[in-house]
């Protein structure tokens, strides 16, 4: 499965990318909205992990660049009521609070239909 991760923390991309690669998935990453928009125009994926807080915008700004239907999870250490309501309003798959664990990620992967 192809997975796209958008997160300004390169360590998060590396850690999450390693977890997903060990599970047999192909991973693409971007670290800001500008590069994410280029990546999202070029690549389609089965699963997207989007950070809420990016240096030049928000993961919310990237939704329109993703072809639907798609499996989308927002990630953030900041998960206040306002952010959770925005996530719910977008009708995406869910929200992951940072820091997350390998188990959190494998549960998401296990819920997806097999390709």
Class by SSE composition: alpha/beta
Strand order of the biggest β-sheet: 2-1-3-6-7
How many angstroms does the end-to-end distance come to?
7 Å
| CATH architect. name | 3-Layer(aba) Sandwich
CATH superfamily: Response regulator
Mean pLDDT, rounded to whole units? 92
Biggest sheet architecture: 5 strands, parallel
Q: Find the count of extended strands (DSSP E, 2+ residues).
A: 7
Structural commentary:
The chain has a 5-stranded parallel beta sheet with strand order 2-1-3-6-7, with helices on both faces. The chain has 4 helices and 7 strands. The chain is an alpha/beta fold and 115 residues long. It has a single domain, classed as Rossmann fold (3-Layer(aba) Sandwich). Strand 6 (71-76), helix 3 (81-89) and strand 7 form a beta-alpha-beta unit. Keywords: Phosphoprotein, Plasmid. This is Response regulatory domain-containing protein. The modification 4-aspartylphosphate is found at residue 51.
Question: Secondary structure elements and their pairing?
Answer:
Elements: E1 2-6, H1 10-22, E2 26-30, H2 33-42, E3 47-51, E4 53-54, E5 57-58, E6 71-76, H3 81-89, E7 94-97, H4 102-111
Parallel strand pairs: 1-2, 1-3, 3-6, 6-7
Antiparallel strand pairs: 4-5
């Amino acid at each position: 499965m192809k997975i796209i991760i958008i997160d300004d923390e390169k360590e998060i991309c590396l850690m999450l990318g390693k977890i997903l690669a060990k599970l047999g998935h192909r991973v693409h990453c971007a670290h800001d909205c500008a590069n994410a928009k280029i990546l999202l125009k070029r690549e389609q994926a089965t699963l997207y992990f989007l950070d809420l807080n990016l240096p030049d915008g928000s993961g919310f700004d990237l939704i329109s660049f993703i072809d639907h239907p798609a499996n989308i999870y927002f990630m953030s250490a900041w998960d206040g009521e306002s952010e959770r309501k925005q996530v719910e309003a977008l009708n995406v798959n869910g929200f992951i609070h940072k820091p997350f664990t390998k188990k959190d990620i494998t549960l998401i992967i296990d819920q997806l239909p097999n390709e």
